Amino acid sequence: MKDGVQQDVATTPKFLIDIEGTKHPWDRDTITVPEIRALGNLPSDQPVIEVDLHKGTERTLAEDEVVQLRPGQGFSKKVSYKRG
């Protein structure tokens, strides 16, 4: 219970997906590139790029790629997505 309000753990999103600086709640431990596009309103004619903020690296995701998310590792703080 926090501030007198009990949160239902089953309805609390497990992840926050950071797409171009906007965090989107996400309940599953995977996300596809089309789902990233839909969440962030990213156009289909530009690549989706995974940005690892800790390592300072970027990589372009394949259109059919499924990204495995990991709880408890600050996903939205370490990796974000942007249009190419």
Structural description of this entry:
With 84 residues, this protein is mainly beta. The protein has a single domain, classed as Ubiquitin-like (UB roll), CATH 3.10.20. The protein is 14% helix and 36% strand. The protein contains two helices and seven strands; from the N terminus they run βββαβββαβ. The chain has helices spanning 33-40, 75-78, and strands spanning 15-19, 22-26, 30-32, 48-52, 57-60, 66-68, 79-83. The strands form two sheets. Strands 2-1-7-4-5 form a five-stranded mixed sheet. Strands 3-6 form a two-stranded antiparallel ribbon. A hairpin with a 2-residue loop joins strand 1 (15-19) and strand 2. It is globular and about 35 Å long.
Brief write-up:
The protein is mainly beta and 84 residues long. It is 14% helix and 36% strand.
Helical fraction: 10-25%
What letter string, H or E per element, gives the SSE order?
A: EEEHEEEHE
Q: Give the number of helices.
A: 2
CATH class value? Alpha Beta
Question: What structural class do you assign from the helix and strand content?
Answer: mainly beta
Major sheet description:
5 strands, mixed
In total, the number of strands is 7
Tally of discrete structural domains:
1
